[in-house]
Design brief:
Largest sheet: 5 strands, mixed
CATH topology of the largest domain: D-amino Acid Aminotransferase, Chain A, domain 1
Number of strands: 18
Distance between the termini: 50 Å
Number of domains: 3
Structural class: alpha+beta
Number of helices: 11
Strand content: 25-35%
Order of helices and strands: EHEEHEEEEHEHHEHEEHEEEEHEHEEHH
CATH architecture of the largest domain: 2-Layer Sandwich
Radius of gyration: 22 Å
């Protein structure tokens, strides 16, 4: 019997429409000879919609597409469509494939749905998704594994509101200008600003705090190269892609560079023209992070090369277009990669299903009624 794959995309972020492009692409590439495919769209309010027409990107140009698709729900391991006060079962769900970029999806929300419904997950789990959504926490984890990162530290809004001058002084003395200020839990360069002096730093912090209450202040390298490398797991082995070098048109790779002017034309070189030492280091770091932090599905690690050193920048647990272009020359060839990650997810779910979840000790039955008293 064919397994049913729920492809979830959209999400509660500024990357919602970009996620639709990824999600519709993936929905049409999953091998339908092996799997039933059910596209599920999450809008920016976190509402879920299900309809086969959601696989067609042109369907979203209709202002009433949500109403036509109908609200949906994943519960008890099944996908339902809401019809008034009633639920209509669409399918028994087996696997979730997460294509949400940013909050409300890439941050672990979709992984939590999979866990609660005991579904296989062909994407990173809750812990990894939450960790890598937080830039400050990501740097802590990477450094703990011996992966080199640019000097940085986090600033919490509650501390900045009380001791803002001290925070600015710390940035100036520890990092020195220029510095890059990032909302810790946002994606695609949203709210990220390079500051070259105190006035720009204050403005950058105010902008970043508008998006998040935790901000990462980091040393900025004016002279650098950005290098990306992707990975996924197949049959227990971690497959690492060749490295790519995106074309940098500005100080940083912006949302416009990634998506508005994106696609293959944003790649300066693939494979990236870097030294064998740097290539080995980047691929090694990517594999190390994937294995030691128990990643799943397809991820993309982003690095910087500056002053002869390689620095880990961030991990994208749901990369744009699932980074198919780093594994396949032709889009159609990506079908096999998707089959690999779906099958890997099913294997790992079977292992989980065989584990003990809880041990009943009967303590409640042995206790006298508390009658509202403290136990």
């Amino acid at each position: 019997m064919r397994k049913n794959v729920i492809v979830v995309f959209g999400g509660m972020s500024s990357e919602n429409e970009i996620s639709v492009i990824t999600g519709t692409m993936v929905s049409n590439l999953v091998d339908e000879e092996k799997y039933g495919v059910y596209p599920v769209y999450l809008n920016t309010d976190g509402e879920m919609f299900a309809d086969k027409r959601l696989r067609d990107v042109s369907f979203y140009s209709d202002p009433s597409f949500r109403k036509k698709a109908g609200r949906a729900l994943i519960a008890d391991g099944k996908l339902y469509r809401r019809k008034g006060s009633r639920l209509k079962e669409l399918c028994k769900a087996d696997v979730i494939l997460n294509c949400c970029h940013g909050r409300g999806g890439e941050d672990g929300a979709v992984a939590a749905i999979a866990d609660l419904n005991k579904l296989a997950n062909a994407s990173p789990d809750l812990l990894a998704s939450s960790l890598f959504m937080d830039k400050a926490a990501t740097k802590l984890a990477a450094r703990a594994l011996g992966v080199k990162c640019a000097d940085s530290f986090k600033i919490c809004k509650r501390d900045y509101d009380k001791r803002g001058k001290m925070a600015i002084k710390c940035v100036e003395t520890r990092l020195k200008y220029p510095v890059i200020i990032k909302p810790s839990r946002q994606g695609s360069s949203i709210g990220i600003i390079v500051a070259h002096d105190k006035n720009e730093l204050v403005g950058a912090l105010e902008t970043a705090f508008a998006y998040d209450d935790i901000v990462l202040a980091e040393k900025f390298f004016a002279e650098k190269r950005e290098i990306n490398c992707a990975a996924y797991r197949k049959g227990g082995d971690v497959i690492v892609s060749e490295c790519e070098e995106p074309a940098l048109k500005r100080e940083i790779l912006t949302f416009q560079d990634k998506y508005i002017e994106g696609g293959k034309e944003r790649t300066a070189a693939f494979p990236a023209r870097i030294s064998k030492r740097d290539e080995t280091l980047i691929k090694g770091y990517t594999k190390l992070l994937y294995k030691r932090l128990d990643l799943r599905g397809i991820v993309r690690a982003d690095f910087l090369i500056s002053g002869g050193e390689v620095y880990f920048n961030e991990m994208n647990t749901v990369p744009g277009s699932l980074a198919y272009y780093l594994f396949c020359e032709k889009l159609g060839d990506f079908k096999e990669v998707l089959t690999d990650v779906i099958e890997q997810g099913l294997v790992e779910r079977a292992v989980k299903d065989g584990q003990k979840v809880a041990l009943s000790c009967g303590v409640i039955n042995k206790m006298p009624a508390a009658h509202g008293k403290r136990l």
